[in-house]
Amino acid sequence: MAASLQAAATLMQPTKVGVVPARSSSLQLRSSQSVSKAFGVDSAGARISCSLNNDLKDLAQKCVDATKIAGFALATSALVVSGASAEGVPKRLTYDEIQSKTYMEVKGTGTANQCPTIDGGVDSFAFKPGKYQAKKFCLEPTSFTVKAESVNKNAPPDFQNTKLMTRLTYTLDEIEGPFEVSPDGTIKFVEKDGIDYAAVTVQLPGGERVPFLFTIKQLVASGKPENFGGEFLVPSYRGSSFLDPKGRGGSTGYDNAIALPAGGRGDEEDLAKENIKNTSSSTGKITLSVTKSKPETGEVIGVFESLQPSDTDLGAKVPKDVKIQGIWYAQLEQ
After folding, report:
1. How large is the C-alpha radius of gyration of the chain?
2. d(C-alpha 218, C-alpha 210), whole Å
3. Alpha-carbon distance 71 to 78, whole Å?
4. How many other C-beta atoms are found inside a 10 Å radius of the C-beta of residue 34?
5. Strand pairing category for 187-190 and 193-195
6. What angle do CA 178, 285, 191 make, to 5 degrees?
7. Strand partners, 122
8. Which DSSP letter does residue 90 get?
9. Which pTM was predicted?
């Protein structure tokens, strides 16, 4: 392009037309005028003035303007994308609203990890005495804290806030079991079936990651509606058939690490916990409270606080206390 512009500029240099024949002069002027018209050059009489420099300046300015417009468009699109990903927690829906949505309407919104809410109702437990069947029992954690050494020196161990490392798949749902309301106002719930466990990993401020199995297996909760609870079973985070990197397991694999003699140095006290896998279960405790109920639809919601141990790596580590707080929802049917 530069060579073409240079050739055009050379062609359009001022020329004396009086020294050439009239016919040649008219042809040269005609050709000069056509070239001038093609390149946007103004001609006046026998002398041709070239506006190439001005055209180059205008072209450069247009390129700068186009660059600015492209940059603005890119920044705008980035803001739109960041805004879409920063919408936060979706609006909590009722059970009927969730059921009315399609899979694509729920996918990627976070609604599938939420327990339903109640539209209306009363701020108390308003069910009559009798035997009910609790269905659609759901527990949604809203915070995970772990009791560990503080990052500050000389500070006693305390429950510290954590960062969730797993995806939004920690809600327990579809739990069911008998629910009894006594004449004296006490209630009792026994967990029988459902999606009653979820593997969760959180990270402490110091960087340590704590895996645990959030569960309410075999829960038997009783008490007043404003404060009822009980103990539940916490299974081993890993099963007995799990093999560690050295091939050791609870029911399969090696008894001790390879190249260490069984009954000798391989079973010393400092390595016994690594060699002898322990898949025994532990217990946790949960307290629930009813905040609202709607007898006409059989719905009840509330809050809970659960305290349970973390993973022990099949007995090799000392478990940490994990406190889980959140909300719960259930439907009572007679």
Report:
1. 38
2. 24
3. 11
4. 10
5. unpaired
6. 15
7. 293
8. P
9. 0.69
